[in-house]
Design brief:
The chain is an alpha/beta fold. It has one domain (about 25-140): Nucleic acid-binding proteins (OB fold (Dihydrolipoamide Acetyltransferase, E2P), Beta Barrel). The protein has helices at about 5-20, 35-50; strands at about 30, 55-70, 75-80, 90-95, 110-125, 125-140. It has a five-stranded mixed beta barrel with strand order 2-3-4-6-5. The termini are far apart.
Length: about 140
């Protein structure tokens, strides 16, 4: 095989392997780079009108929070988002994709995290909650 054919073959293989790689779906709503006041307002809207966001891929930035229900032993993880004056905070729960154990696989509490997942709601008792499902979680070490 001459050099020209070899280079074309390699280039074709690179293009095909890149095209076949799984890509993450696009983000519909990216709140990770907005001001605290805008994010806080947007999260309030998400909680008030969850049907408008159902199924959307959402990216948020906040501080890691953790709670374990003493009765059920169910673990809850959330990104806590404060407004610009840090007087008010709201959290968005997330379910990290894959198998992860707390605390060994998670950053320390209050670490700034970025979460990207699919917006969903669920009911516990008579209360509705919002969450990001099948989420990706990143943070700086």
């Amino acid at each position: 095989m001459n050099a020209k054919k070899w280079l074309l073959t390699v280039a074709l293989l690179v293009v095909l392997s890149t095209a076949s790689m799984a890509k993450e779906p696009p983000v519909d709503l990216d709140l990770s780079n907005l001001s605290g006041t805008v994010v806080y307002s947007q999260v309030y809207d998400m909680m008030s009108r969850p049907e408008a966001y159902a199924g959307q891929r959402v990216r948020i930035k906040g501080n890691l929070s953790y709670y374990i229900d003493p009765g059920t032993k169910h673990e809850y993880f959330a990104a806590i988002i404060s407004d610009a004056t840090a007087c008010c905070a709201q959290g968005i729960e997330f379910v990290w994709r894959g198998e992860h154990a707390y605390p060994s696989d998670y950053p320390p509490l209050d670490t700034e995290i970025t979460v990207t997942g699919t917006f969903d709601t669920y009911f516990e008792d008579e209360y509705m909650y919002i969450q990001l499902l099948d989420a990706e979680l990143t943070w700086k070490s």
